[in-house]
Amino acid sequence: MKQVMVMNGILIFFIFIALGCVGYALFRYARRPVEESGTDFRLREENGQVRIEYRGDPFTGDVAVGLAGDGPEKKFAVRTIRLKLEAPLTSVTGWTKSDWYEIERRLYERYPEAEIIWSEPVAALFDE
Q: What is the DSSP letter of 114?
């Protein structure tokens, strides 16, 4: 009888440890940073700028807000985003145009009325 009580006590102890682990995992999940994230794209907005990380390389963009729409549909919206690569140019070696278009596509999802302007040397890719 005493042996059964000890086994029950050990079982209850391990159940509480498992519940604690699950609770901690849920707590960590709930407190993760709120960002738009995919497998390799992250976007943050702060102080009139956007900060993007795509495939591990950082970009910053200055955001200009203006009026969009006509008549009663007028509203303030992001009109221009000037993007600049913050990493050395060698970090994007091997990227194709589709990688750059993916960044633009993700930005257009968030800011549909914005014009995206790349700084040099990335702008040279889009001049062709």
A: P
Closest of 74, 83, 88 to residue 106, by C-alpha: 83
**pLDDT values of the chain reduced to their tens digit, one per residue, 128 residues:** 788 888 899 999 999 999 999 999 888 877 765 554 445 888 888 888 889 888 888 899 888 888 877 778 778 888 889 999 888 888 888 888 888 888 899 999 988 888 998 888 888 877 76
Provide CB contacts within 8 A for 82, sequence distance 6+. Answer: 61, 62, 64, 117, 119
**Is the model's pTM score more than 0.85?**
no
